[in-house]
Amino acid sequence: MKPFVCALLCLITASSLSANLPFTWTAEENSEQEAYIERFKRIAMEEMERTGVPASIKLAQGILESNSGKSYLARTAKNHFGIKCGSNWKGDAVYREDDDYDSSGRLTKSCFRRYNDADASYVAHSEFLRDPNKAFRYGFLFRLEPTDYKGWAKGLRKAGYATNPRYPELLITLIERHRLDEYDVPGEIDPIDLEVPVEDAITGILNTNDVNYYVSQAPVNLQQVAQQVDVSVRRLLDYNEKLVSENQTVAANERIYLQKKRRSYRGSERYHTVMAGEDLYDIAQRYGIRVKNLARRNRLGEQARPAAGEQVKLRGWRVRNPPDLTRNGATPDPVNPITRPDRTIEPATTDDDGFLDMGAPISPNTPIPEPKPRPTVEPEQPVVTPPATTPPTSPNQPATVYHAVTAGETLYAISRRYGVTVDAIRQLNALTGNTISVGQQLRIR
């Protein structure tokens, strides 16, 4: 009996010790992980600049989910994050047993997305996390500092991304072992042309607000998109307000909607807080809403650029008062008008959201009459002392532009948005490095 008890105690002790030991990998596995990092570090950094998902977290997740690119899904479907098809996926797919069961409790094969290029799965991973329909699960992560990889690792587990209770420890161990946090430094990556063909850079057909849309990592011609998604060019022009030509080239990462956008947002959010540089079109694109309906709901013109921090209503009745267009004396940047075919004004109707369409939108640019010149008074006596001369002022002096930093933004990303250099922003704001904080007001021009 004693030998049995002794052996049992030894087994329990060994198990408890192994549960507390740090995660270890063989020399061969470490080498494979290093090769994986070298291959995907650039797209991870580009996605951090674009979306705010830390490069360290994305690389660590890629290593875990794809077993350093050796998993079945990574090899056969170029799907490095195990992203499933979902009801709206129209692209190629791979079926494999995972964790789906039928009504009888039997394990069934799950549908996983197949990509033409592994980089596309990295982009799709970002879109999955920042999907407005999933904001109630993952939205809080984007309020963390992008360099807080520990907070992100624990937050992913808290949000239900993974069921393994040690998932955060696995991510943190990989990040610290390979110093992946060094790739979270802002401004370290320059935009480059993709080395893969455009058709291989497609992320697949994604969905927001129950509307399908298409995104490419590279600039793409509209006719090429129509062939890829099997939707006519005429319909694409009808569904997307800023698409006006059959031969138009669409910028990288710009959404191209494949169906009519909704009149209102069907998610949980009722309002959107405007970020610096956003206009109504940007907001409508993000939530899958038609620009004209968003403008009417907020009593604005379709070209309006609400001030940063204002609330734009996404669903429900029309607002009583429109959002402010300027704040703190700032002047909104000029917006090129959206060219559309001539349309007749429809009579006032009540749409499916319940707010009344009062007709033509209110223009935010009401002309201000020029002030009358003051009458000049001739002096009765000549002036002995000549008046002090003042330097002439430029009549077209550009307005000062400020930007309010939001979670996940970097100096490099901000500089690209406004078409200025990082050094110029540093000099204007007396910055000694690249560190910025959420809510900080940066002078851009």
TrEMBL record:
Location of the region described as Disordered in the Swiss-Prot/TrEMBL record: 320-398
The keyword Signal is annotated on this UniProt entry: yes
Compositional bias of kind Pro residues: 384-395
Keyword Hydrolase: yes
Molecular function as annotated in GO: amidase activity
UniProt-listed InterPro entries: Glycosyl_Hydrolase_73, LysM, LysM_dom_sf, MGlyc_endo_b_GlcNAc-like_dom
Transmembrane region(s): none
Coiled-coil features, chain-numbered ranges: none
Protein's name in the database: Peptidoglycan hydrolase
Organism for this UniProt entry: Neolewinella xylanilytica
